[in-house]
Amino acid sequence: MHVNQRRVPIFIAWMCFVLQVGFIIHARGTLPDLGIVPEVPSAEELQMLSFGDEELAFRVIAFRMNNMGDTFGRFSALKDYDLHKVYQWFTLMDGLDNQSNHPAAMAAYYFSQTQKPEDVRYMVDYLVESSKDRPHERWWWLTQATYIAMHKMKDNDRALEIAKYLQGVEGIPHWAQQMPAFVHEQRGEFEDAYQIMRHMLEKSNDLSQAELNYMRYFMEERAKRLDEVEDLLRKQQMRIDATRHRLE
Q1: Residue ranges per domain, the chain?
Q2: What is the mean pLDDT of residues 206-212?
Q3: Of 29, 83, 97, 127, whose Cβ has the fewest other Cβ atoms within 10 Å?
């Protein structure tokens, strides 16, 4: 049988074309499983992969954390993220640079907004673990963790546990030191809330007039303690006046 040699390449090209079209029709609904949160390496592996430049490695990971789930034309809902892995990544990032606020900001302002409330605890855990030993430096993230625990997790016990890291820490805003009082008030523990405010009135000499006014409101209206408030405020004002007189 004589075969026209000139037609063979054309026949092969058509067969390839038909096979390609068939493959596309069959596979067009099949998408690659790209995943969302990458697998978490060990601390040792991460150190090795950083090639000695921990700051560069930190920034590369931060960039990936910003964009994961929204690459290659995808848009992923927060409920689809494995927040336990995100927590592990943030912990690893702290091993590279524990002075940066970037992971904490992502945990508090972005990932904590997940549509799965049961996963919020991972972000709260990260905020607490990265901040509790340095409340004078990272008080802001402890206040955020307290707020998220109260209002997203609806767990006032956890919120109080976190807020206590802020109580009595010198050099941070007074309202941050008062966080345990706010949680006690939410729990209906008005006497405990009142005692925290009272202690601050008795010990602090640098309260502003606005802070004094708020503390008066809190103790009278929210802690339900009308007695002693005027006397406490009068003594506080006397201390402030005495301090001002010495400075003059």
Answers
A1: 33-130
A2: 84
A3: 29
Is 205 a residue whose pLDDT tops 80? no
Residue 234 burial (CB count, 10 A): 9
Q: What is the pLDDT of residue 142?
A: 98
Output the pTM of the full model. Answer: 0.77
> For 206-222, what is the mean pLDDT?
82
Q: Comparing C-alpha atoms, which of 102, 38, 116 is closest to residue 71? A: 38
Q: Give per-residue pLDDT as tens, 58-70.
A: 999 999 888 887 7
Token pair belonging to 88: 């592990």
Q: Are 205 and 179 in contact (CB under 8 A)?
A: no
Say whether pLDDT at 103 is over 90: yes
Closest CA to 79 of 41, 42, 37: 37
Say how far apart CA 164 and CA 149 lie, in whole Å: 13
